[in-house]
Amino acid sequence: MKLEYEKIFIFLIFCLYLFLIMIDLTFSLPPGSSDHRTCSNTWDNSCDSGSLNDAFNSSWNGTHDLGCSGVQNMGAGSGQDVQEVYLNATLIKFGDAINATCQFYGGLYSTTNGTEWMFYYNGTEGGWMELGRWNDTDNPLNVTNRTVVFIPNNTVGTHWIRCSYRQNVFPTDFCANWTGEADFGIRDNDDVNFTVTDYPKYDSWNVNVSDYTELNRSDAILAYAHWDRNVSFVKIRHNGTGSFQNYSILSPYPGNWTNYTLNLSNVTEFSQVGVIEVSYIWVNNTDGLENYTSPAHYFNLSAGNPPNATNFWFSYSEITINITNKYTNLTIYANVSDDAGLNTVIANITYPDGNSTNATMQGEQPYLNEWKTWNYTFGNDLHLNTTGNYTVRIIAKDLGNQEKASGVDHPVENMSFYVNDTYTLNFTSNYTLYMRGENVTIQALDVNNLATDNVNWIVNVTKINETYNFTPQATTFNYTILTNDSVGNYSILANASRDNNTGNSSWDFNVSRKFIISFTTTSSPMAKGSPFNVNNIIVLNARGTEHVFPFNVSISCNNGGYEYTLRSLSFTNNMNYWGQCYSPNSYSTPFNVTVSVSDQYNNTGQYIVNLSTVEETITYIGGGGGGFAPPAKEAEKKCEDGTLYNQCSPDRPLYCSNGTLIKYCSVCGCESGYGCQPDESCIITKEEDFNFIINLTEIEITQGESKEITSRLINTGNTILNLISFLNVSKSCCNISIPSSFELNEREEKEFQIVIRIPLSANVREYPMKIGIGTEYFKKERTINIIVRKSYYHNSLSDMEIELKNLEELIEEYKKVGIDTRDLETLIGYSKVLLNNANESISTDEIIVLENSLSDLKNNIVSVRSSLNSLMTQRFLLENGWLVGLLLIMGLTTMYLVPAVLIPLSKKEKELLDLKREEEALVISRVETEKQYFMRKIDEKTFNGIMIKKQDRILKVRGLIKENEKEKEKIIKSMSPAAMFTWFGRGIKSIPKRLLKRKKKNNIDKNGKTE
Prior knowledge:
Layout (H helix, E strand, L loop, with lengths): L1 H27 L7 E4 L2 E2 L15 E2 L3 E2 L15 E7 L3 E3 L4 E8 L8 E8 L6 E8 L7 E8 L6 E11 L19 E11 L4 E6 L5 E3 L4 E8 L3 E8 L6 E4 L8 E7 L10 E12 L4 E3 L4 E5 L6 E8 L7 E3 L5 E7 L4 E9 L5 E5 L11 E6 L10 E11 L4 E3 L9 E6 L3 E4 L5 E3 L3 E7 L9 E9 L2 E5 L2 E2 L1 E5 L7 E11 L2 E12 L3 E6 L9 E10 L10 E8 L5 E6 L5 E8 L7 E10 L4 E9 L41 E4 L2 E4 L1 H4 L5 E3 L5 E3 L5 E5 L3 E5 L3 E10 L5 E8 L6 E3 L3 E4 L4 E9 L8 E9 L4 E11 L2 H25 L5 H22 L3 H24 L1 H8 L1 H54 L5 H34 L3 H31 L4
Parallel strand pairs: 6-12, 14-21, 23-30, 32-39, 52-59
Antiparallel strand pairs: 1-2, 1-5, 3-4, 5-7, 7-10, 8-9, 8-11, 11-12, 13-15, 15-18, 16-17, 16-19, 19-20, 19-21, 22-24, 24-27, 25-26, 25-28, 28-29, 28-30, 31-33, 33-37, 34-35, 34-36, 34-38, 38-39, 40-41, 41-44, 42-43, 42-45, 45-46, 47-48, 49-50, 51-53, 53-57, 54-56, 54-58, 55-57, 58-59
Helix pairs in contact: 3-4, 3-5, 4-5, 7-8
């Protein structure tokens, strides 16, 4: 393991060594191709291009030609020369250092000496400066990198680095020029440039107001700065929103001015009031260098005037009055403005129970007193879950935490709206007569008469004394009158509920299947055997209006057996059937035309017109002639507005009486909001309306019990109401106790109890109970579904009745086997009397009698059952004698085998096992003693003494083993009938002795001495 650790340690040392070598190589390598390098003025162009003297041509101070004429006669890269020039940056700012590297080739000849130089030129003053000088003998015949790091002077503009190589000749200037000397003539000059720049500087920075000047929203101030050069990107920073943010200043910037207008009416940029800090203007110049102004400036933005709310209102769908239902999405709207910007707008809502809560309204920030609408909608975090009056107060707070509230200092007062929990059920078609196939549609309307979606319906439809229940969830309830539905009287009792809003109502209507048919024919009598027309066939439903479903029309022209024609026509009204029917070809013959109508819903109708042919004409000579003209059909009589005689005009309460329109409101009724007067005219009535509230639609009550339902009446009208109660519930259901009348003052609320008592005899089922409260003119109804549950008494009585029947059958079985059961039969007879009493008490609703009867009946049943249980053994013995004998024999055998055989045999087996184990242990011990003696661990005398004892014990144990084995065999042999009978005989004989012995012992214990 130690060797493995040593190997790992050596491997880690080796890795570290390689890593250090790589670092050393990295820092010793020349700059790579990704570094800045150049020759002459072309960046990223190699100096080793074959051109001579890549030095720039320029003049210094206008007099010195800085171009060089050195000769590079060995060819590029093949002789002593400058191969590359590298810089680590192309642009630096004042005070930054730059890294310059000249890459020289040291020459082909080891005896040749050369000199390597690095020069710096700042472009303005000071001329060329020597940065370094090296002799190529330091590293001949190889590429050498000479690096200098220095800080250029603070001159903005282009700066130069020159790398020069000279062989055997010292320079006379900053160029390695060839002057024709008799030498190798190897000279090379290569240049690289870079730019030195500085931060942009400002000489002016301010805002056009004094620090901490108080300003209003209507003000706008100017922040400005002037810079020493052109800038490319500018921002201004301030904390007008509560946190510091930057805002761009738009370019261009003429004259190097950067200006920004702080428009204080912009609430988005200045959402806070109070002290605002304008921190600085920040710039970035074309060289990528940045700077910012200092110090910060400040001004104080006034909170201005408090906020203002001109009005607020409520809206839910098409609500026109301030009333809605529970759990609707009512919205509170408010118009609010402020001259400094709003912080929050709160709707303070007081519920009917007096508790208040705040709801944060949503809206836009206004700009300089511009009105904006703020809103809050119920249903997200707050719910309209209680009926009653809600009061709303609008509280507006501006950015300066100035607050105003409606009803206190707003020009508007607090407002209220009312939440109701009732629906109005609208029987949309509201006909008194329907035909098969038509829909009866019920719609639930809220307090604003708006249709309610996804309503839970409980609808009972009674048709010809048969009731059907429906519980759909839908916007409307539709009942389609089916093809096989009976005609006659129908009633619908409907309950609609959603979100604890309920509505109840009922309607009665008739169902018919008869069409109303009319048509015209050629006048009768008509010529014999002549064709005639059936014109203007019109089919109407039972209400006398156009039938909306397709129907078939058939025409039968019966001419007394001479001719029969049948035609079917498609669904249309005003049909004509021309020239297809013929009159009988005989005189004075009656016949008829029948039009029959039917549709797919089993609606039918028939209209028969009786006709005849003309009588035979007898011509008298010299006599005159005569003719017959059938009377014209009397026109329908109407009043001047088109109302038929003895009918109500659409303009109620007018009635058409013998051509004159008279007021008859007791028959025709009045328009909504009007009342009928003794003179049969209609006048505007007082507003009489109320809410009838029951907070449940279903209740479960057990037979024989009572429950109370709390109800409320709210007078929502403007007059005193005297109301009476109406009750409609099956007589077999229950006993209802409700006040018969109520008097409600204007806007008064009253609470009352409806007590429902379910008799013991009521059937277990559901009973719709319709409760109406109202006046002779109007009433409001609520339906409660009463669910009757079976009582404990009924269950107990049923169980006892079954138990009595079972006991009677058992008693009969006991009697058959010979057991005397007369007492039990008498008790059963008395129990039947109690059972009859209990059933009678249910029909008479006497619960005390029922409880006593059930208690006595239960005791009798327990007594009979107990007696039968005690006789069960006797019955068993009588029915199963042979089995009892067999069981007795088996029991006696077991009584003998267990104590006389099995237990002694088990003991002997255990004793034998213990003796054999002891024998085995003694033999082993003897052998061990012999080993110790032979090994001279004990002497002979000791050995003889031990062996005598052990051998003696072994012999005794073996004797006991033989003795126990004999006794075991003896016990096994005792398992015979003879031995068993002998054992029982000894036991029976010993019984008197044991009894006598026990008696003597008891006397001794009692008297303390022997008698």
